[in-house]
From TrEMBL:
Official protein name in the record: Probable guanine deaminase
EC number: 3.5.4.3
Cross-referenced InterPro entries: Amidohydro-rel, Metal-dep_hydrolase_composite, Metal_Hydrolase, Metallo-dep_hydrolases
Annotated keywords: Hydrolase, Metal-binding, Zinc
Cofactor: Zn(2+)
Pathway membership: Purine metabolism; guanine degradation; xanthine from guanine: step 1/1
Length: 471
């Protein structure tokens, strides 16, 4: 069939042919490709396989295979709140909407002391979950968010869970069961001045011990860490005591683990960091001194970083997850993606559910394009800021692969790469996209990006395993 990918910011690669996927150590890898074959019979012959020995898939008339999307920043626990943020901005959004919901997913005494922080107590009102199983609500939420992200073509996700070890471990169990490639982080937060009493670890040592408990559970599920891996997750500087940040930095270094956190998202947050960490040169310096800035670190947002901070992030090889939908929804600002890229920093896309209102990385591509134009406007109409469709898709695939340490293994159709793929059909019965037939293929991709959604996703594979079928 047709294979389309975005190997560079300016270049769509549109090819017709066939690929042979086979199992290597339990992972479906692209073993052979041939971009000259035009019939199934020719493909079987060239690859030396019999039709009955393979699971055969062919794209539709207006269909194509595309690398699976990589969501480098999503809070699985916040999924029930998508779209629910009112007029809040980051800091009041956290205390009003987010902490109560996360706390309600169980594992710790939930909702004993929310002080009415969340009127209506969203923690318990969704469905009557089993009272005999304290994780039944987490089970329902996490099952939904994994299924939903897969249905939108997200084959890899870097998840924040909650502070609860059992609920975080359940998220890992479910991602592994459904077959999504996932990095799972138990959220660390213990600062008594900024975290509510009902939702925080007691001490730095407890924060570390809980992080380790979850890491070890996850590594037991997948000892190679190729499909499922833990990720060290201090929520953000203001919610952690300095000692906790250092313990987690040491842990990540000692065990060579990925790290994820938030950085420089909101102006009020910057003031809070200055207030809580007066002896540090900058927000970035807080993480740097704690040993949290490594080449395996994903920093979400990175909107208001100064030049010295960019330089530190670049030299440390840390990555940025650009979350445009969230940045607009919470009024956080315009992330200068072009400047980050020009400074040699790897950038990817994150939905940041539920700061972001949608689990769709296709929507993040759209929002990245739109926000870049607003940024150009406030910078005197300079077109250099503009991100186009191809560059957005590159960030969503190759950019994601770089940011999760899977460059060359995810994001394309070259031999040796993992088969993490979405099959798109622009002409399905319920497609929100109308193709008239005269559009060139790059124009069809434009139409997909601006109006496509999960109704166009026909099948999704992770490591060669079919994990979703929307047929
Ligand atoms: N900063 C600290 N916690 C959060 C969170 O849950 N979402 C976002 N967008 N920013 C944060
Ligand atoms: Fe976030």
């Amino acid at each position: 069939g047709r294979f389309i990918s975005a190997p560079g910011p300016e270049s769509l690669l549109i090819r017709q042919g066939a690929v042979l996927v086979s199992s290597s150590n339990g992972h479906g890898v692209l073993e052979k490709t041939d971009w000259t074959l035009i019939t199934p019979a020719a493909a079987f012959k060239a690859f030396g396989v019999e039709e009955q020995d393979v699971d055969f898939h062919q794209t539709m008339n207006n269909g194509f295979f595309f690398p699976g999307f990589i969501d480098t920043h999503i809070h699985a626990s916040q999924y029930p709140n998508v779209g629910i943020f009112g007029k809040s901005t980051l800091l009041d959004w956290l205390t009003t909407y987010t902490f109560p919901l996360e706390a309600s997913l169980g594992g710790k005494e939930p909702l004993a002391d929310t002080n009415g922080a969340y009127e209506g107590n969203r923690g318990t009102e969704i469905v009557n979950y089993s009272t005999s199983n304290p994780l039944s609500k987490a089970d329902a939420v996490y099952t939904k968010v994994i299924r939903r992200t897969l249905s939108y073509g997200t084959t890899t996700a870097s998840y924040f869970a909650t502070i609860s070890v059992p609920a975080t471990n359940l998220l890992a169990d479910l991602a592994f069961k459904f077959g999504q490639r996932a990095y799972i982080g138990r959220v660390c937060m213990d600062h008594p001045d900024t975290c509510p009493t009902y939702y925080r670890d007691e001490t730095p040592d407890q924060s570390l011990a809980n992080a380790i408990a979850s890491i070890e559970h996850i590594q037991k599920l997948d000892s190679k860490g190729e499909l499922l891996a833990p990720i060290v997750t201090p929520r953000f500087a203001p919610s952690c005591q300095p000692e906790t940040l250092s313990l987690l930095g040491q842990l990540a270094t000692d065990r060579k683990l990925r790290v994820q956190t938030h950085i420089s998202e909101n102006i009020g947050e910057l003031a809070l960091v200055k207030h809580l960490f007066p002896q540090y040169e900058s927000y970035t310096d807080v993480y740097h001194q704690a040993g949290l800035l490594t080449s395996r670190t994903i920093l979400a947002h990175g909107i208001h970083l100064d030049d010295r901070e960019l330089e530190t992030i670049r030299t440390q090889g840390s990555k940025i997850s650009h979350c445009p939908a969230s940045n607009s929804a919470l009024g956080s600002g315009f992330c200068p993606v072009r400047k980050l890229l020009d400074n040699g920093i790897d950038v990817s896309l994150g939905t940041d559910v539920s700061g972001g209102y949608s689990v769709s990385i296709l929507d993040s591509v759209r929002q990245a394009c739109l926000v870049s134009r607003q940024l150009g406007f406030v910078n005197g109409g300079d077109k250099k800021w503009n991100i186009g469709v191809t560059e957005g898709l590159w960030l969503a695939t190759v950019g994601g692969a770089k940011c999760v340490g899977m460059e060359g293994r995810l994001g394309g159709f070259e031999p040796g790469m993992l088969f993490d793929v979405q099959e798109i059909d622009l002409s399905g019965e319920n497609s929100p996209v109308d193709i008239f037939g005269w559009e060139k293929w790059d124009e069809r991709i434009d139409k997909w990006v601006w109006n496509g959604d999960d109704r166009n996703v026909r099948n999704v594979w992770v490591g060669g395993r079919m994990v979703h079928s929307g047929k």
